[in-house]
Write a structure and sequence with these properties.
This protein has helices at 4-23, 56-114. With 116 residues, the chain is mainly α.
Length: 116
């Protein structure tokens, strides 16, 4: 028995299936957009230097620091939440592309099987 026709068919089938993909122009690589840095400003820690240790000015600066520290924390939390949404959107887009490819590959497989 001559196995040459079988080997030719075995090599030709995947090659024929790949022809449409090879005929397309290669996609140009696009750089992923950079994730912007946060613009949250940390508050300046109040120093006792130059202020009375328990004076009213020092107390006000501590209160201002506590308020600003809370605002800084909220800003960082919002940045992290927004970045997580961006990452999820990017992952969803990648998964959608994979699903599209898999669906197309399955359609091609079915067409090849139907032509046998």
């Amino acid at each position: 028995m001559n196995s040459r026709p079988f080997l030719i068919a075995l090599v030709a089938l995947p090659a024929l299936a790949a022809l449409p993909a090879l005929a397309q122009a290669p996609a140009t690589a696009t750089a992923m957009p950079a994730v912007p840095a946060h613009n949250c400003v940390p508050p300046r820690y109040p120093s006792e230097a130059g202020l009375q240790k328990r004076g009213e000015a020092y107390n006000r600066s501590v209160e201002a620091f506590n308020r600003d520290f809370k605002t800084y924390g909220e800003c960082i939390k919002k940045y992290v939440d927004d970045t997580k949404l961006w990452v999820k959107a990017a992952a969803d887009a990648g998964n959608k592309a994979i699903d599209e490819y898999n669906k197309y590959a399955e359609e091609i497989k079915q067409k090849i099987e139907a032509e046998k």
